[in-house]
UniProtKB/TrEMBL annotation:
InterPro entries the record matches: Bact_solute-bd_prot1, SBP
Name this protein carries in UniProt: Cellobiose-binding protein
């Protein structure tokens, strides 16, 4: 999910039995925007014996640090804890401290409710289901139609798809663009690299949780392509989520953007009303379909009301509720029933020139065949090692020196 700033909110599991008001109190800990603010009162209205308290952090990393600390302490966790995909392997390693939702959850909630790769990622090797899938981040590409036209690049959707057919053709189009424009081709090397990384069959770790950044030649090949584009002037050299990056949308500092479904909000919010109708979205992603982001709801064994917590988690992740959450805050549904729903597919964001934006992302989600295994430090490597190393290259460090920085940093984290 999209990461933004925010303060850490502590939370604890509920007490044994009903509270003084006669209700069972459940707690749920999330981060960023899950879209539950209106859903929780709806659930309470239909379940008068349940009272729900949600605590929410702005950043995913502090949320997960808090979770892991409380797992180690053996107390203090919420009845429902949200887990982002980049931290899922750390939870799977401690699966004994989480309830198997196949055992305590509603009998009619089967893995078949979700896209197969989404359900598989939260299933342990011995078949336990420790998380109900919430959102996903199917990737498309956003581009400024007006800037393409000004630089003499085609704007017809089919011609744009041809330019975005592979990473080689994408960067070749970027060379032509920057030769005919004062604007950069993309916003940030790390934002492009992250999509390329997610497309690989094996990422920073293999499925045995061994760090393979130095031996996985495909990672280095992607590094070389992105940093070559940087040296050619294709990057706006902006730090993602920073103030200059936010402003870069409004000032038309770049022409293309790797665009998981949740990126529609930042694109619109940062670009402002003066750029309405200038951004388009295409389902042609260089290198093929992939996913970037998404989370799960888990029920730790610390919960005093695991059955009620599992029932709430199942309801929140049902197709109907996920469509409501998407309308409210933008987390894209991972359930097949939602992805096929006319209620979802009819949705369009009028800010973009592309019609039927929900159809674009639903189609992209179904094209993803598997979820890449994320190792225990995967998220930290991407955010705290790879991104700074690529930023160093954008500021003048030689690409080979930046790669050494990345490899050494990943090894230190993985110790």
């Amino acid at each position: 999910m999209l990461v933004t700033g925010g303060a850490l909110a502590a939370c604890g599991g509920s007490d044994d039995g009903p509270a003084a008001d006669g209700k069972i109190h459940l707690t749920i800990a999330t981060f960023n925007e899950f879209g539950y603010e209106n859903l929780i009162p709806e659930y309470e209205a239909s379940h008068p014996n349940i009272k729900i308290e949600q605590t929410k952090t702005g950043q995913s990393a502090p949320h997960h640090q808090n979770l892991l600390t409380k797992l180690g302490a053996g107390s203090g966790l919420a009845d429902i804890e949200a887990i982002e995909e980049g931290f899922l392997s750390q939870v799977l390693d401690k699966s004994g401290q989480f309830n198997d939702l196949k055992e305590i959850g509603p009998a009619d909630v089967k893995p078949e409710r979700w896209l197969k790769w989404k359900a598989d990622a939260a299933t342990t090797k011995d078949g336990k289901v420790i998380g109900y899938g919430t959102d996903i981040g199917p990737v498309a590409m956003c581009y400024r139609k007006d800037l393409f036209e000004a630089a003499g690049l085609p704007t017809d959707p089919e011609q744009v798809k041809a330019m975005f057919a592979t990473w080689d053709s994408y960067f070749e189009a970027g060379k032509r663009f920057v030769d005919n424009s004062e604007v950069a081709w993309f916003d940030s090397a790390s934002q492009v690299f992250n999509v390329m990384q997610n497309q690989l069959p094996t990422g920073y770790y293999d499925t045995s949780n061994n760090l393979v950044i130095e031996t996985n030649a495909a990672i280095k090949a992607n590094w070389d392509k992105v940093t070559r584009a940087v040296t050619e002037g294709q990057s706006a050299k902006l730090v993602a989520w920073g103030p200059e990056w936010n402003t870069g949308f409004k000032t038309s500092a770049f022409a293309t953007k790797t665009c998981p479904s949740w990126m529609m909000g930042p694109v619109e919010g940062n670009s402002g009303p003066e750029n309405a109708g200038k951004w388009a979205i295409t389902d042609a992603v260089p290198g093929g379909p992939t996913n970037w982001g998404g989370s799960y709801l888990t029920v730790p064994k610390q919960s005093k009301h695991p059955k009620e917590a599992a029932e709430l988690a199942a309801w929140l992740t049902a197709p109907e509720q996920q469509i409501k959450a998407f309308k409210a805050k933008g987390p894209f549904p991972s359930q097949l029933g939602a992805l096929d729903s006319p209620d979802l597919l009819s949705l369009a964001n009028d800010y973009f020139v592309t019609p039927n934006t929900a159809q674009v992302f639903a189609s992209q989600a179904k094209k993803v065949e598997r979820a890449q295994f994320k190792g225990e430090q995967d998220g930290n490597i991407q955010d705290n090692v790879i991104a700074p190393a690529l930023q160093a290259v954008e500021q003048g460090t030689a690409p080979d020196d930046g790669w050494k920085q990345a490899v050494e940093g990943a090894k230190k984290l993985a110790k």
